[in-house]
């Protein structure tokens, strides 16, 4: 490997990290250095690399320790047989970069992953060393997210949880057959075993902190995972069911979806074209429906066609159009769970409706102030001065409520 300076390494390894989607920094405990002690915080604003659920922009230094790897996963641009420019940071270089970027107000935290070099244990030791050095030597109080390696020793993975706010273990692909075909060196059972061990450690330390205030925090922002979409034959229904299983079994904070991107010198077993990015977006929307809107996986899938979510409308609208017998919903009387199923009404709008109707009967103008598109909501609700009558059963309702495509202007007049 040619000798590279830090700037050249950063250019290579920051670009190589762009394929990892799981870098949101929500859910961790609040820490800061306002008392004059330590460096960094988990709060504040900065250059945006990710969005937290509350809308805050989170700036993270998102890099790989190295893009060299001993594995040869077909879908990975950093695989052993890939003809890409390689680089490698030392643990000390990553620590220096993180602190330097933070002091310049470029970032609020670190997202660190890596290809596998020498062995899983050796690589995991390097990742842990970065986090340990930041926390113990420099008293860094910003956000740290570490990608852990399923094949690494359990004690090394446990140490990662002691230093990092969030840890993640990628399941890579939604089906066992897909993983076996495209990443034969990886073991699905080993991956799930590592996720189970992490869940157990998080639960144990959480219980310990209830009894002993001196007990250390352990991955306070939990664990997450990522699935590649479109590299194998898995349908949206398969992905949705897999995500729900992961949430239930391992109490994950997030499942991230990353649309497969064709890579140079690609293996013949990979598709020639990337899936539509809208497919990734629809999967995130379906994930949101299950996590915050009370939809079951089977309900989300029931709105699909042959296991694939429609790309032209969101899954909540697709469900409402397919099961029109559930509508219209009376905004002045319906329970929260039914209001959440109305297309165009989000959780905040529903909370505002439930609060406001305690004092007066709501009219259509009141609902209009709570939603971006009243046209989308109208066929599915009734209120004090509005009833959709035959609109809900309109034969061309899909075309009527579907958002119209329009060319955006870069410099509107």
Automatic annotation (TrEMBL):
Top-rank taxon: Bacteria
Domain Elp3/MiaA/NifB-like radical SAM core: 59-286
Keyword Iron-sulfur attached: yes
Keywords of this entry: Iron, Iron-sulfur, Metal-binding, S-adenosyl-L-methionine
A GO term for molecular function: metal ion binding
Listed cofactors: [4Fe-4S] cluster
Stored InterPro entries: Aldolase_TIM, DNA_rSAM_put, Elp3/MiaA/NifB-like_rSAM, Endo/Exo/Phosphatase_dom_1, rSAM, rSAM_sf, RuvA_2-like
NCBIfam families attached to this UniProt entry: rSAM_link_UDG
Protein name: Putative DNA modification/repair radical SAM protein
Source species: Pacificimonas flava
């Amino acid at each position: 490997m040619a000798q590279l300076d830090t700037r050249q390494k950063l250019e290579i390894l920051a670009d190589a990290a762009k394929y990892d989607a799981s870098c949101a920094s929500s859910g961790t405990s609040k820490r800061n250095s306002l008392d004059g002690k330590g460096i960094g915080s988990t709060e504040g604003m900065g250059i945006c690399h990710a969005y937290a659920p509350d809308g805050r922009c989170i700036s993270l230094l998102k890099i790989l320790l190295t893009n060299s790897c001993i594995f040869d996963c077909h879908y990975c641009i950093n695989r052993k047989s890939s003809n890409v420019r390689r680089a490698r940071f030392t643990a000390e270089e990553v620590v220096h970069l993180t602190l330097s970027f933070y002091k310049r107000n470029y970032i609020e935290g670190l997202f660190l992953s890596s290809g596998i070099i020498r062995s899983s244990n050796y690589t995991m030791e390097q990742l842990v060393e970065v986090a340990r050095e930041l926390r113990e030597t420099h008293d860094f109080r910003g956000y740290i997210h570490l990608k852990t390696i399923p094949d690494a020793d359990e004690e090394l993975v446990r140490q990662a949880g002691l230093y990092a706010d969030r840890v993640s273990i990628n399941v890579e692909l939604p089906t066992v057959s897909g993983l076996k075909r495209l990443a034969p060196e990886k073991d699905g059972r080993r991956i799930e075993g590592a996720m189970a061990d992490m869940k157990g450690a998080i639960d144990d330390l959480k219980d310990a902190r209830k009894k002993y205030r001196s007990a250390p925090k352990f991955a306070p922002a939990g664990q997450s995972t990522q699935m590649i979409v479109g590299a194998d034959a898995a349908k949206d229904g398969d992905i949705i069911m897999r995500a729900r299983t992961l949430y239930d079994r391992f109490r994950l904070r997030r499942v991230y979806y990353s649309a497969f991107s064709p890579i140079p010198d690609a293996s013949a077993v990979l598709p020639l074209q990337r899936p539509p990015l809208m497919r990734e977006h629809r999967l995130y929307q379906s994930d949101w429906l299950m996590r915050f809107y009370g939809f079951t996986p089977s309900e989300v899938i029931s709105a699909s066609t042959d296991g694939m979510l429609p790309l032209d409308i969101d899954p909540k609208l697709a469900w409402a159009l397919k099961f029109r017998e559930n509508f219209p919903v009376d905004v002045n009387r319906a329970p929260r769970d039914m209001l959440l199923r109305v297309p165009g009404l989000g959780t905040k709008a529903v909370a505002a409706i439930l609060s406001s109707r305690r004092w007066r009967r709501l009219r259509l103008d009141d609902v209009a102030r709570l939603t971006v598109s009243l046209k989308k909501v109208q066929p599915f609700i009734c209120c004090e001065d509005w009833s959709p009558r035959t609109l809900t059963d309109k034969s061309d309702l899909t075309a009527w409520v579907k958002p119209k495509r329009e060319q955006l202007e870069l410099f509107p007049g």
